[in-house]
Amino acid sequence: MAVASIPHGALVDGHGEADQLYVETRELRLQGFLLFLVSDCVLFSSFIFAYLYMRNSGQGWPPPGIHRLDVAFAALNSVILFGSGATMHYALENWKHGNFGRYALFMISTIVLGAMFLGGQAYEYTNLIFNEHVSWAGSGIFGASFFTLTGMHGFHVSVGVIYLTILLLQSVHGIYTKEKYFGLTAGTLYWHFVDVIWVALFSLFYLL
Amino acid sequence: MEPAMVERTIAIIGGIIVAIVSAIALKNDWKTPGLDNQVFKLMLGLLVIGAIVALLAGVGVLGTFPKAA
Predict the structure, then answer these.
(1) What is the pLDDT of residue A16?
(2) Helix axes A140-172, A182-202, angle to 10 degrees
(3) Which of A60, A166, B32, B61 has the fewest Cβ atoms surrounding its Cβ within 10 A?
(4) What's the pTM value of the predicted model, to 2 decimals?
């Protein structure tokens, strides 16, 4: 394999060899990252199928005594998250084309929109717990599945916000170049993944 | 204006903007080669669908339920 033939000290020997190492390992790293996303997808899928199974074996949905979730607010919060997916994509595109100022602008927008989504989720949780009296443990299957799935997604968004902030700081400090930016590609893939998972969760919990 | 109406209005406007911007990004990336770009295209396609779903939810086409008996 090409990777095995590269000397261990290639990274410190000079830029030419380091670039060669980057080119030859980029595809492997990409495949590894995609595999991670696939495994994450399996995790979400298993919870989603468990939720669907329990939902269809119960006495109607949502169970008696629990109101329908607020669709209008969820639609707004979803648009915020989907918007952050678009800004993240344009951040990467601008980096590829050398527009670093625009890259930073789009990246900051993505982080802010991601944080706004988390704020919206926190507001929704607060409303559900204190006004609707829905809780993770005390509201049966509905509360358990809703808080587990959306909480797990929220955790991914939180990690994503931190991850993107680190990527922004790294790019400001010159870790990435116009030619070598795999970290930014991985960050964009991760953020798109988080968006796409929310398409499924939003449809399942609020629209069906 | 009721808060729900404000939320729906922002969701509709935002959904239209995000759907159009994502569709343009998808169109621009359509012919790019490479594994990462193929995944980006898939993700952008799903993002367009998500934005349209959120837009329809904002309009009231999706997610409107009959009142409980």
Answers:
(1) 66
(2) 160
(3) A60
(4) 0.87
pLDDT of A197 strictly over 50: yes
**Contact indicator for A167, A183 with CB cutoff of 8 Å:** yes
Q: Is B18–A82 a contact, with Cβ atoms under 8 angstroms apart?
A: yes
A158/A156 Cα distance (integer angstroms): 5
- Note whether B62 contacts A207, CB cutoff 8 Å: yes
The 8-class DSSP code of residue A4 comes to G
CATH topology of domain A50-207: Four Helix Bundle (Hemerythrin (Met), subunit A) (1.20.120)
Which DSSP category does A136 fall into? T
For residue range A46-98, list pLDDT tens digits in order: 999 998 888 888 667 777 777 778 888 999 999 999 999 999 999 999 999 98
User: What is the DSSP annotation of chain B?
Assistant: --HHHHHHHHHHHHHHHHHHHHHHHHHHHTT--SHHHHHHHHHHHHHHHHHHHHHHHHHTSSS--PPP-
Average pLDDT over residues A16-27: 77
B14/A80 CB distance under 8 A: yes
Q: What is the pLDDT of residue A2?
A: 44
Burial (CB count <10 Å: 0-12, 13-18, 19+), residue A183: middle
Question: Given CB atoms, is A193 within the 8 Å cutoff of chain B?
Answer: yes
Q: Would an 8 Å CB–CB cutoff place B65 in contact with chain A?
A: yes
How many residue pairs bridge chain A and chain B with CB atoms within 8 Å of each other?
Answer: 116
Statement: residue B63 has pLDDT above 80? no
pLDDT at A5: 44
What is the torsion angle, in degrees rounded to the nearest 10, for the CA atoms of residue A164, residue B39, residue A91 and residue B47?
-90
